[in-house]
Write a structure and sequence with these properties.
- Among the domains are: about 300 residues, no CATH class; about 70 residues.
- Helix content is about 70%, strand content about 5%.
- The chain has 28 helices and two strands.
- Helix 1 packs antiparallel against helix 5 and helix 18 packs across helix 24.
- The longest helix is centred in the C-terminal third of the chain and has 49 residues.
- It is globular.
- About 10% of the residues have low confidence.
């Protein structure tokens, strides 16, 4: 047993152990057999998780002011004044992330043993999976931008390898390439942001950059740095306009989808903005852009999920929407709420994806929910656990998603104003609808399939049960003060983000959108938010005044909770009416006929892919054809042929002088000799 602070010297092993597992499965996995590959693949992630929990216990024993531990693994680059060590940073944010990433990844690895047991590339799969977790752990533990960027590009590479894992399928290969190319746009701007940080601060070390950035840069420079960093987050976390790669990523094996959507890759963008939040706080404009981008992404993606019929694509658009919730929270000055929702979403979304994998496995790779039905009596464990995940994702009171989503909704109302709050509440109600639409079409009603059911084995069911438990109780780490809780997650993250945010108070905060006191537009929005809060307090006082004569403390937030709960239940209820009750089953078809234009927009995902194809891909192909014909063929090819023809013609002229007559050669030699003599 390692004593005292020495336990933190083991931190480097958290990412190193999965790397060792990846190397083993890469070099020896094919010869070792599936059993050894499974033991090494799952065992390495399990050890990383156990070590994370062990370090977490020691970490909680430290006073809050000491919860910032730096660990230099080795000095990588030393060039003059430029130092780039491979150093790790353990603080509340990275501690929460490594525990979640390693824990959820371990369950996904265990599930994969059963799901992929018959795949011929079993060892290659676990090599990629272990490597993915290594890069994600490196990313969240990085102590400087260079190490973070290594992890950042590493998860991008692994996502490409895993999305196109079944590369024999043309669609899988294309999806992997699309993910790699689209995220490169964001990565390019992120790299520029890192360069700008180095130019301005003279260092890329997190502690030096974030300690007091206002002493080094003004709000304008902070805006440029923040927007470049945010561009990277937009690509990695699939936010509009770089969100189109994530739904296509469903070509990957289902456990990979769970890993990408819950524990790695897409959460990296949220983590990046949260990590760089001291810079974002200096620029109200950048926070507004983050918040608005998140809000639009959440709403648009949720509307697409309403009409999709592919079970994995519904969950994919759900992920994009929930990531939008997180960016909205970051934009309105509630980073702790964003991280809280990241954690609870990881539990629920991993459960839903693995549950969908069990459904697909049971129905021999069927993914269309219109071809399912009546499955609850055939795979009951999957049904019950999937339902718990759906309830948590929908924000039903008492489950994990309710507390984290409520924190975001309350922060949005206080700092973002009534309109932003109203739109995100409507979006939240859609979550309940499209999630339970899956349940009612897949598990209820008459069966619309005729195959022999493949029952998931124990190795697949156990992760579902454990994730269901986390989805049920994981939110209790952030029970707000108004419900008698201590908002522990905000207190835990206080060393990163300051004192617990607006969730603990009914008073409008001066964070987030309200930070733009220098910006006239933001001042108006801030005043609207404050006015909305006053109106809410008045309504609450009026409705709760019976018997007491006044509203209890915190009642505005209680009313907001009530509204969000009612909207969540309404989404579930509407799905039940449309897809279970006899009188409601005809309504979806009727609505799609009546509002055909809207339905087409949603089924085509707001035409983002088609527009991008027309503007970028088709334009590129036309330009390529033009340059091929007008430049390559007409100019370059003709020039090359012209030179070749000239040489050929010149050679023919010279060869005509070769008559093959000895007297002619003798005459030429004599004349040449005379010319040389005369010249000399």
């Amino acid at each position: 047993m390692v004593e005292g602070r020495q336990v933190f010297d083991l931190l480097w092993l958290v990412p190193a152990i999965p790397l060792f597992g990846a190397i083993f499965n890469c070099l020896l996995g094919a010869r070792a057999g599936n059993l050894i590959v499974s033991i090494v693949g799952c065992g390495s992630i399990g050890l990383a998780f156990a070590l994370s929990v062990y370090i977490f216990r020691a970490f909680l024993g430290l006073p809050p002011e000491d919860r910032m531990i730096e660990f230099c693994v080795f000095q990588w680059i030393a060039a003059g004044n430029f130092l780039a060590p491979i150093d790790l940073l353990l603080d509340p944010l990275s501690m929460a992330m490594i525990t979640m990433v390693s824990g959820v990844s371990f369950l996904i690895h265990v599930y994969s043993v059963g799901y992929m047991e018959k795949d011929k590339c079993f060892a290659r799969y676990f090599f990629y999976l272990n490597l993915f977790v290594f890069f994600m752990l490196t990313l969240v533990l990085a102590g400087n931008f260079l190490v973070l960027y290594i992890g950042w590009e590493g998860v991008g590479l692994c996502s490409y390898l895993l999305i196109s894992f079944w590369y024999e399928k043309r669609t899988a290969a294309a999806a992997g390439l699309k993910a790699f190319v689209v995220t490169r746009f964001g990565d390019f701007f992120f790299a520029l942001g890192i360069m700008l940080v180095f130019v301005q601060f003279g260092t890329i070390h997190f502690h030096s950059v974030f300690e007091d950035p206002a002493k080094v840069i003004d709000s304008r420079m902070a805006m440029w740095i923040a927007l470049l960093i945010f561009a990277g987050a937009v690509g990695k976390s699939a936010q509009i306009p770089l969100h189109t790669w994530l739904p296509d990523a469903m070509e990957a094996p289902t456990p990979v989808s769970a890993l990408i959507h819950a524990a790695t890759m897409v959460t990296a963008g949220v983590y990046l903005v949260a990590r760089c939040y001291p810079i974002f706080e200096l620029s109200p404009v950048s926070l507004q852009i983050v918040g608005i981008t998140g809000l639009l992404t959440a709403f648009i993606s949720a509307t697409v999920a309403l009409v999709h019929t592919d079970i994995k694509r519904i969950l994919a658009y759900s992920t994009v929407s929930q990531l939008g919730h997180m960016f909205l929270a970051l934009g309105v000055g509630a980073p702790a709420a964003a991280v809280f929702h990241l954690l609870t979403h990881a539990f629920a979304k991993a459960l839903l994806f693995l549950g969908s994998g069990a459904v697909i496995h049971a129905l021999h790779d069927e993914m269309d929910i219109r071809n399912m039905g009546g499955l609850r009596q055939y795979i009951p464990a999957t049904f019950y656990t999937f339902t718990i995940g759906a309830l948590a994702m929908s924000g039903i009171p008492g489950l994990a998603g309710f507390f984290s989503k409520d924190a975001i909704l309350h922060a949005t109302f206080v700092n973002g104003g009534f309109l932003m709050w109203a739109l995100i509440v409507i979006t939240a109600s859609m979550t309940g609808f499209y999630t339970f639409r899956i349940i009612f079409m897949a598990f209820f009603g008459e069966k619309r399939w005729d195959v022999h059911i493949h029952h998931p084995g124990t190795v697949m069911v156990i992760p579902l049960v454990l994730l269901a438990l986390l989805a049920a109780v994981g939110g209790y780490m952030g029970v707000p003060h108004v419900l008698g809780g201590g908002d522990r997650i905000s207190n835990f993250l206080a060393p990163n983000f300051g004192n617990p945010e607006v969730h603990a108070t009914a008073e409008p905060s001066n964070k987030g959108v309200a930070l733009a006191a220098e910006d006239e537009t933001a001042v108006v929005e801030s005043e609207e938010a404050a006015e909305s809060e006053k109106v809410l307090e008045g309504v609450t006082a009026e409705t709760l005044a019976e018997g007491e004569g006044h509203a209890p403390a915190g009642s505005p937030e209680m009313l907001l909770m009530l509204v969000s709960a009612v909207m969540a239940f309404s989404g579930v209820g509407l799905a039940y009416f449309f897809y279970v009750t006899p009188e409601g089953r005809e309504v979806p078809a009727m609505l799609s006929d009546k509002f055909g234009a809207v339905y087409n927009i949603l089924t085509n995902a707001w035409y983002f892919d088609k527009v991008y194809k027309a503007v970028f891909i088709d334009t590129y192909m036309l330009m390529s054809e033009f340059f091929w014909k007008a430049v390559d063929t007409a100019v370059i090819d003709h020039a090359v042929r012209g030179v070749a023809g000239s040489l050929l013609g010149g050679g023919s002229i010279i060869s005509s002088l070769q008559l093959g007559l000895v007297r002619w050669y003798a005459t030429v030699m004599v004349l040449g000799a005379i010319i040389i003599i005369l010249y000399i």
